[in-house]
């Protein structure tokens, strides 16, 4: 085996030192390989950390994109932006959310509109029935059917007027609070006003047709014919007698019409009295409930007053002492009593 000479090194003090006899070329090669492997490992770890940082950066970008607010504009395929619109909500193409849902739920116009439309159809049916009865029958003889048809028509007209009043209330509510019903634009509000006006015109037309000149003339003609038949049965022969009978028949017919109108007015008054009686009964029940609540409140106040008197009596006895601890306790209890007293009154 070859012998290795010790390597001499010069220190900082100028003296030469010998290197250890174990430093050989093989060891130097091992050190070189270890250094290179360490460098490769360091470079691999550097690449891994770089990739990890890039991945985290992409994740942050994706998360930022996903965290955009949902209230942003909706973009179509052609690149145009779509804004929320009240017409879209009403047509059903866009589902409303949040405060818009509350505003839509608080708008009962469509419910009252359907109800009014249905009642207007009933008015038209009742009017057609009444006119058919007047035209096809002898109103002087078939008085019961005529009265029944007219009474039914009046009832349907009143129901339609009540529904129209409710619908008008919804329109007025929207007009007075435009901020709350922001989903209703001016065009929609204008359409609602037009619908209310058309409905009112339909009801007015039904009333006019019910008491039209043609209907009155038909009823008067039937009454004259009835009076003429009676006069004919009485045996009037001369022209003078016939003229007198015709005049009497005409007056009798007009009197019968006036009596019918008075009967209808009395029936309307009777219906009004019945409604007033129902309202009075409801008011009486409400007053009874209020009196019951007041009586219960008086009982609660009496109990509270009794308990408060007992507490104040005990406090009066305790106030005679000079102990500061007891005085502080008394003040605290007094405060609690007043708090309980106000809670009993205002709850």
Automatic annotation (TrEMBL):
Pfam families: STX6_10_61_N. It comes from the Eukaryota. The chain crosses the membrane at residues 327-346. It is found in: Golgi apparatus, trans-Golgi network membrane. GO terms for biological process: Golgi vesicle transport; protein transport. Residues 143-177, 252-314 form a coiled coil. InterPro entries: SNARE, Syntaxin-6/10/61_N, T_SNARE_dom. This is t-SNARE coiled-coil homology domain-containing protein. Residues 9-19 have a biased composition (Polar residues). It is a single-pass type IV membrane protein. GO terms for cellular component: Golgi apparatus; membrane. Belongs to the syntaxin family. Its main location: Golgi. Residues 45-58 have a biased composition (Basic residues). Residues 256-318 form the T-SNARE coiled-coil homology domain. Residues 1-95, 223-245 are annotated as: Disordered. Keywords: Coiled coil, Golgi apparatus, Membrane, Protein transport, Transmembrane, Transmembrane helix, Transport. The keyword Glycoprotein does not apply.
